[in-house]
Amino acid sequence: MDRPNYHWQAIDWQQLTQDYPPPGLFETSVGQMSEGEIRALQNTRFLARVAEAWQYPFYRDRWQAAGLEPGDIRSLDDIEKIPTFNSDDLKAAFERAPPFGDHQPGDPAYFRDAHLRILTSGGTTGLPRVTLFDAQTLEIQGIQSARAFWAQGLRPSDILQITYTNSLANAAWCTLNGAFNWIGATPMTTGAGIVTSSERQLQYAKAWGTTAWFTRAEYLARLVEVARDSGFDLHGLKTRQIHSHIGPDAGGLRRKALEEAWNAPVYDNYGTHEIGAVAFECREKAGLHISEDMVHIQIVDLESEAPLPDGQVGNLIATSLYRSVPPIIRFNMRDQLALYPRETCGCGLCTRKLSGFHGRSDEMVKLRGTNVYPLACMEAVTRNPGTNGEYICIVSHEGEGLAQREKFVVQVERSAASVAPEPLRTELEAALHRDLGVKVDVEIVDPGATAPHTGLGLQNKTKRLLDLRR
Ligand SMILES: [Zn+2]
User: Fold this and answer.
1) What per-residue confidence (pLDDT) applies to 248?
2) Which residues are close to ligand 1, an ion, with C-beta < 5 A?
3) Quick one: pLDDT at residue 424?
4) Which of 67, 91, 263, 450 has the greatest number of CB atoms lying within 10 Å of its CB?
5) Residues 6 or more apart from 358 whose CB is under 8 A from it?
6) Can you list the domains of the chain with their CATH numbers?
7) For the segment 220-248, what is each residue's pLDDT rounded down to a tens digit?
8) How far is the CA of 289 from the centre of ligand 1 (A)?
């Protein structure tokens, strides 16, 4: 039959707000649940998602190979019987069953009947991973963002400047949906620097009265530089809060520098393309509240994948409790964080929390027997006033055959052409040696020189590793 599908009919809105409460309802419902209550809710949703996952060859084949049959998983207590997967496994799924993989539906009838969006994870090499988003999933990811924004103080009277591009990645869309659909704030979708230049971002913020920002920490730092170079007064803006992804910042120096430059609180958040914005800081800035009705999280050992005790940093394994298409069951994100026990926070919410982001284990470079993470260079670089905080790690091979070695160079931008390179290089090499536990070479370059590799300001994500070994 040939007829349009109306989006407003694709969702039972009343049911949705009951099942996945948006701000205003979340704080007094899911945000107050006891360990037992949340576990029961997670259990029901987990079993429903597992039953759906059995329909897809990706899960069926992997699980059967691990000796599982439908019905074997009877509760959340059995979750560790299920094998994990990572982005390499998804890559193989796309190769087996192009273009959408064998872990999500691809038949035309489904595309006709469901309200779908095609979104992708940030493209690294080759085609980016496509993830289908049905109407409800997209809305739930909006609710996730809205919970975070609300806890950080975003209100209907705020004007929110979103410096992520509304394109194939979902971050900008979920932010937009969250602020617009579930708070009623006023989003300003300037996009990343490639869409609206940094100079114009600042002009618009001033002209239209931006009070809140959704911006990655690297780009916040970039805007500080642009403001300084052009004599723009960031303190003259009406900024009340900044929703960001701060990255590794154990000493809190990065956040402190940004907050001083912007004269506003900067809040950390954690999320990924598939599971959405699952954890957020509140105004207490004491760990990231997890939306536990939407995701089940384990932190595991890098090698053995055995669960680690609370407080220890390991790989994050996520199971989405709301997402049917595609199901996400035990995805090893290879993001490194720590998990903290449930407690009532100063903001009134009672949830488990996550630490800030410590790095990505798949960006790890093994250098003379030591694991080196490109993001672990950030503190040493940011701390030194001779740099502007920008850098890229370049790993390559030098020599031939048996004499072949891995070469690891950190290119660091000096803050101005007047900064002498030699003393800065020596200081950074010493600081990096201390932080990384292994000696690396530093090369000082001019401001802006690493941008073609990092994509700073132009792309949604900033790259810190250029791997020339392959
Ligand atoms: Zn809190």
Assistant:
1) 80
2) 282, 284, 345, 347, 349
3) 96
4) 450
5) 248, 313, 336, 337, 338, 373, 375
6) 1-356 (3.40.50.12780), 364-467 (3.30.300.30)
7) 988 999 999 999 999 999 999 999 999 88
8) 7
